[in-house]
Write a structure and sequence with these properties.
It holds the Pfam family FERM_M. One of its GO terms (cellular component) is cell-substrate junction. The protein is built from 17 helices and 26 strands. The two termini are about 40 Å apart. It is an alpha+beta fold. Among the domains are: about 55-135, Ubiquitin-like (UB roll); about 140-185 and about 210-270, Ubiquitin-like (UB roll), CATH 3.10.20; about 330-435, PH-domain like (Roll); about 525-630, Pleckstrin-homology domain (PH domain)/Phosphotyrosine-binding domain (PTB) (PH-domain like, Roll). It is elongated. Helix 10 crosses helix 11. About 30% of the residues lie in helices and about 25% in strands.
């Protein structure tokens, strides 16, 4: 067949040299006779030595400047990428370290990082546009504190690995909890006419939870349109903070506090008025102490020995019978499951044992079988407290086959509330009352109540030292309109008296503790359309559950926990997420305000966070992270 083809070309009076050129072969020797032409044609079809023709590849070298012309390199398809780099460097005649350089293929939007691969394997032809440039480039990174750093980031590796490099420079542990997002363009600051005072427009911040444009962790910066000297924001993405230790996490704690502070001030998360005054007092104290106190935590050998002793005691007590522990006295509590009825609270006799609570009709019947036993392991525990109104409620979200059951426990006083709230928090983590953190948990709750009581009684109190503070910078805009400065200042200063003795680190830890105790803590929101529904709804993604929320009124419709999840997948063609839970529960939805890859990455990311353990804390399984979050598109 090949011989016939070349005979045809020859008979059509087209030179063999031109024919071979069209086919991509080099010019032959002097024209052979017709009888040897067929033999030559067959050799061209089957001989490996002649199958790879030389062709020109055009490469732009970034270091030569924007106006420099591309360099042409003669290559063959079986030449590996490393060989192309060698030829290119020789042609530039520039002596420098080229080890950080690599090819960027503009049409395919990918890096050619496998230098042993041939051009043929990459499917690179003469029409390819390659850019030879550095993999590490300057990037502006805005931290949660508002400080913007200019540093060198890796533009060729995944965002996940780029964040690891940035956190390594900043000495932030557990970089898997953070990621990069595109900054949201706000209206520029403007000045009122006739006034020199600067006014900052915050009218766009309230819909911000739906507009966070997270970068894809599986793809590199350049693939997502991030160029040299662009600006990105570094933020904590996954609210599952592992092993926070003030001895090693000074930078991590500070940035986490700043992200929490702005979430409170910009009302990304709801809190009560009393809690807002506490946040304001702690913020004022932290700002004040940071100017005078060294912020580097110091490791104490005595504290290390104490931690070891307490850990030994915890193990010893865990081995004893929990029934012999009388750390929490059974009590009469009022109980109400949240249903669509007007049922009031009913009194029952409650007992706490191991990680469960049981309730009976009366104390006398507590020696028999309980009405119900509720295992708290894996449940959600949230406070619903107003000291001024003597309201001490414990809100429990208990896992159930159909989702989550919401239960309220009402305590009679502060002491009872502190003990039972601490017990419920431990039970939700799978810990018993023998755990060494039980008493410290009680003390923390009591301190929180004391600060709230002080805040609620602040009106009418006069301070001997009425310090001048900028009250409006300590609370959210809602309270700017509700109160004047002279009304806010006494309330904040009153709450401040209860935290004035805290060190810088302890104040930050207290702030974060109150922030994490808020009912809506750690929830990222997306607008979605569930399969079979005709209206848009909100999907809340928390560290351990998914929440379906009515967009019009904000009520929780349904809750699903990750530990009941059997599998999830994404149909990339129709951009739909499908999830299967235990009990033959299946849900599917498409995303309205974000890409389904973001939801997929959040779910996989939180499952990855749950696999971390103390034994593996020094190693980060990057491969597992990409398996859980990357999906089809990452491959």
């Amino acid at each position: 067949m090949c011989g016939q083809a070349f005979d045809l070309i020859f008979k059509c009076d087209i030179s063999l040299s031109d024919s071979l050129s069209v086919l991509g072969f080099p010019p032959p020797l002097p024209l052979p006779s017709v009888c040897t032409l067929s033999h030559l044609s067959l050799s061209l079809c089957h001989s490996p030595s002649l199958s790879m023709a030389v062709w020109d590849l055009s490469v732009t070298v970034e270091d030569l400047g924007p106006d420099a012309l591309p360099i042409t390199v003669s290559v063959t398809s079986d030449l590996h990428v490393g060989g192309v780099i060698l030829k290119l460097v020789e042609k530039t005649q520039i002596k420098r370290d080229w080890s950080d350089h690599a090819f960027w293929w503009e049409q395919k939007q990918c890096w050619l990082l496998r230098t042993a691969w041939t051009l043929e394997k990459y499917e690179i032809h003469a029409d390819a546009k390659l850019l030879f440039m550095q993999q590490h480039k300057p990037l502006y990174v805005c931290l949660p504190s508002g400080v913007t750093l200019r540093l060198r980031a890796c533009f060729s590796s995944s965002v996940f690995k780029a964040v690891m490099g940035i956190c390594r420079m900043l000495n932030i542990r557990h970089p898997e909890e953070l990621s990069l997002l595109r900054p949201i363009e706000h209206k520029k600051k403007k000045k009122d006419k006739g006034s020199a005072e600067e006014v900052y427009d915050l009218t766009e911040v309230y819909d911000k939870p739906f507009r966070k444009q997270w970068l894809d962790s599986s793809r590199c910066l350049l693939q997502q349109g991030i160029q040299e000297n662009d600006k990105v924001c570094l933020r904590f993405k996954y609210f599952a903070f592992y092993e926070i230790d003030p001895k090693y996490d000074a930078v991590r704690l500070t940035q986490l506090y700043e992200q929490a502070r702005w979430a409170i001030l910009l009302e990304d998360i709801d809190c009560t008025e009393e809690e807002m005054m506490l946040f304001g007092a702690l913020q004022y104290h932290i700002s004040k102490v940071s100017l005078s106190e060294p912020q580097t935590p110091v490791s104490s050998a005595a504290m290390d020995d104490l931690d070891s002793a307490l850990q030994f005691l915890e193990v010893k007590m865990e081995g004893e019978s929990s029934s012999s522990l009388k750390l929490l006295t059974p009590a009469v509590l009022t109980f109400r499951p949240k249903k669509l009825t007007l049922n009031k609270y009913k009194q029952f006799w409650f007992k706490f044992q191991d990680t469960s609570i049981s309730y009976f009709k009366s104390k006398e019947e507590s020696i028999g079988e309980p009405i119900q036993q509720i295992n708290l392991k894996g449940c959600e525990v949230a406070p619903d407290v107003n000291v001024a109104a003597q309201k001490f409620l414990i809100r429990l979200l208990v896992p159930a086959p159909e989702g989550m059951n919401e239960i309220y426990l009402r305590c009679e006083n502060e002491q009872q509330y502190a003990q039972w709230m601490a017990a419920c928090r431990l039970g939700s983590k799978g810990k018993t009352l023998a755990d060494n953190s039980y008493q410290s948990e009680i003390q923390s709750i009591r301190s929180f109540l004391a600060m709230q009581k002080s805040s609620s009684n602040s009106q009418g109190n006069a301070h001997a030292n009425d310090e001048s503070i900028n009250a409006h910078s300590l609370v959210s805009p809602r309270y700017h309109k509700k109160y004047k400065t002279k009304q806010l200042t006494p309330r904040i200063l009153d709450a401040y008296q209860n935290v004035a003795q805290l060190s810088f680190t302890d104040a930050i830890l207290r702030y974060l503790q109150i922030w994490q105790a808020l009912p809506d803590f750690g929830i990222s929101y997306m607008v979605v359309r569930f399969k079979g529904s005709r209206k848009d709804e909100v999907l809340g993604i928390a560290p351990n559950r998914l929440i379906r929320i009515d967009l019009s009124v904000g009520d929780v419709v349904k809750t699903w926990r990750y530990n009941n999840m059997k599998q999830w997948n994404v149909n990339w063609d129709i951009r739909q997420v499908a999830i299967e839970f235990e009990g033959n529960i299946n849900i599917a939805f498409s995303c309205v305000t974000t890409d389904c890859k973001v939801v997929h990455e959040f779910i996989g990311g939180y499952i990855f966070m749950s696999t971390r353990s103390r034994e593996k804390s020094n190693t980060l399984n990057e491969e597992l992270f990409h398996k859980l979050t990357g999906g089809h598109e990452a491959l």
